[in-house]
């Protein structure tokens, strides 16, 4: 599991997610999870929450493919 606070660039984060080969699961508070990779409706809801929270979004992710995990971590560190 990976917990991230997105402060600066939600669009860059979503680009990094969409470049992943496998699923990127968003972990919900109720214990469920949903793939957000190339799921533009869900991504639009995340952008809406980000804007409502004054450009801040906390997410918990489950990324099964190690290459995708490292890609998201590398993006986040670079921001």
What does this structure look like?
The structure is a single chain. This protein is an alpha+beta fold and about 80 residues long. It has one domain. It is built from 3 helices and 4 strands, in the order E-H-E-E-H-E-H. Strands 1-4-2-3 form a 4-stranded antiparallel beta sheet. A hairpin with a 5-residue loop joins strand 2 and strand 3. It starts with a strand and ends with a helix. The mean pLDDT is about 95.
Nearest-angstrom radius of gyration? Answer: 11 Å
SSE string: EHEEHEH
- Main β-sheet, in a few words? 4 strands, antiparallel
Helix content: 40-55%
Distance between the termini: 20 Å
The order of strands across the largest sheet is 1-4-2-3
> Ranges with pLDDT <50 over ≥5 residues?
none
The overall average pLDDT, rounded, is 94
Tell the overall outline.
globular
How many structural domains are formed by the residues? Answer: 1
Number of strands: 4
Summed up, the helix count is 3
Which band does the percent of strand residues land in?
15-25%
Q: Please identify the structural class as seen in this structure.
A: alpha+beta
């Amino acid at each position: 599991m990976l917990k991230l606070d997105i402060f600066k660039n939600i669009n860059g984060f979503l680009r990094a997610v969409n470049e992943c080969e496998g699923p990127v699961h968003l972990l919900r508070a109720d214990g469920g999870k949903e793939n957000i990779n190339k799921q533009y409706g869900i991504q639009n809801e995340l952008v809406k929450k980000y804007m409502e929270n004054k450009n801040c979004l906390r997410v918990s992710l489950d990324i099964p493919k190690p290459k995708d995990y490292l890609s998201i971590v590398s993006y986040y560190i670079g921001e």
